[in-house]
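Researcher: Let's do a round of design. I'm pasting the structure tokens now; please hold your answer until I've finished.
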């Protein structure tokens, strides 16, 4: 078990499903942290100062003071979440004891999100909302794969009969899924098809740590936007513009 130490955490983030994973994790742990908003609409994540923190030029990322007194950088959301619980969750608020059966189960669902739900839903978002031309094959491919993965979550939660993915405790696996699942309609996937998963989403959204963390670094307006077609079209148009500009910039490197 890691020794208790004083956090010196700076979170570099933006209002995205991946970004809120870390702010929610920090809020659920009750840890103090500083926030640096990274304006991904202006490609700030590709600037040299940020590449020193994450060479891949993506949010979220954090810095902290490690046990040796030196700065440590962490990137990739799953890696950050594992670091935070290993270093600071000594009371196992959102984790289980190291080496336990439950911890390995949590890791399985964490990687399921990071290798499956996130990438597939992200591509569904891209082809349905941001692509300059509508390619039905791409939209259907990634939307259907997202729907399939949601079916896996639905079946697991229903058969396990537990309020969270692993037992009666909200863990980093649940937190990792939340930002994506709660915004499923943006990808064209309705949670009405998955009643147990929908109940899980509603349960998660009522947690105080989730309520606070999902509004970092700016208020999460996705649920409001999803109720207004004009607002959805406007967000898709604006987001698509900077997504395309970022892709062009990457292609020149």
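Researcher: That's everything. Go ahead.
Model: Designed sequence:
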């Amino acid at each position: 078990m890691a020794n208790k130490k004083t956090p010196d955490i700076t979170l570099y983030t933006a209002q995205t499903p991946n970004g809120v994973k870390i702010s929610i994790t920090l809020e659920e742990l009750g840890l103090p942290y500083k926030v640096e908003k990274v304006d991904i609409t202006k490609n700030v994540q590709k600037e040299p100062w940020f590449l020193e923190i994450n060479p891949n030029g993506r949010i979220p990322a954090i810095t902290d003071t490690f046990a040796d007194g030196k700065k440590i950088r962490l990137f990739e959301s799953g890696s950050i979440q594992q670091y935070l619980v290993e270093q600071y969750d000594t009371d196992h608020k959102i984790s289980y004891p190291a080496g336990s059966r439950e911890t390995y189960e949590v890791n399985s669902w964490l990687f399921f999100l990071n290798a499956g739900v996130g990438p597939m839903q992200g591509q569904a978002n891209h082809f349905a909302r941001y692509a300059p031309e509508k390619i039905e094959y791409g939209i259907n491919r990634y939307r259907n794969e997202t729907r399939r993965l949601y079916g896996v979550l639905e079946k697991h939660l229903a058969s396990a009969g537990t309020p969270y993915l692993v037992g009666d405790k909200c863990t980093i696996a649940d937190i990792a899924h939340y930002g994506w699942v709660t915004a499923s309609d943006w990808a064209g996937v309705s949670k009405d098809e998955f009643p147990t998963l929908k109940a899980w989403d509603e349960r998660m959204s009522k947690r105080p740590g989730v309520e606070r963390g999902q509004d970092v670094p700016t208020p999460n307006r996705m649920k409001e936007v999803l109720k207004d077609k004009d607002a959805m079209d406007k967000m898709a148009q604006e987001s698509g513009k900077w997504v395309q500009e970022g892709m062009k910039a990457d292609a020149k490197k």
